[in-house]
Write a structure and sequence with these properties.
By secondary structure, the chain is of the alpha+beta class. It has one domain: Nuclear Transport Factor 2, Chain: A (Roll). The protein is 27% helix and 52% strand. Strands 1, 2, 3, 4, 5, 6 and 7 form a 7-stranded mixed beta sheet that branches. The chain is globular, with a radius of gyration of 14 Å. It starts with a helix and ends in a 5-residue tail after the last strand.
């Protein structure tokens, strides 16, 4: 069966945003692979730190556009633009469009994110 990787990659990221918006923390945690790493303008994070940061965020309106998806072996590489109104560490950040990159690996029958690059400056 052929899989539409563009649709799958977009669906994976949108599922993550929906789970975060719904405060469905078990679903969010299940989407992160054990060896996960992320890169942000304020430094790198491991899986536990990333999840803790996400749990502390308050997401309002989120706009996702310009998805591009490629596949390498059992990995999907997903890039897109994201504009999100969010509160991090009590500070309300305005919605600014910035690029994001995620890498998803297929572990048996489920996809998990193994890497994320958030290129939004945290002024």
């Amino acid at each position: 069966m052929d899989v539409n990787i563009a649709a799958l990659g977009e669906q994976l990221y949108r599922s993550l945003i929906n789970a975060i918006s719904a405060s469905n923390w078990p679903a969010v945690e299940a989407m992160f692979a054990p060896g996960f790493q992320s890169a942000h303008s304020d430094g790198a994070r491991d899986r536990a730190t990333e999840i803790k940061t996400i749990i502390g965020e308050k997401i309002a309106k989120c706009n996702l556009t310009e998805f591009k998806v490629t596949q390498s072996g059992n990995c999907l590489i997903v890039t897109h633009m994201q504009s999100v109104e969010e509160t991090i560490d009590g500070q309300r950040l305005p919605a600014v469009s910035s690029p994001r990159l995620t890498v998803w690996v297929q572990n048996q029958d489920k996809w998990q994110m193994v890497a994320l690059a958030n290129l939004r400056p945290l002024d």
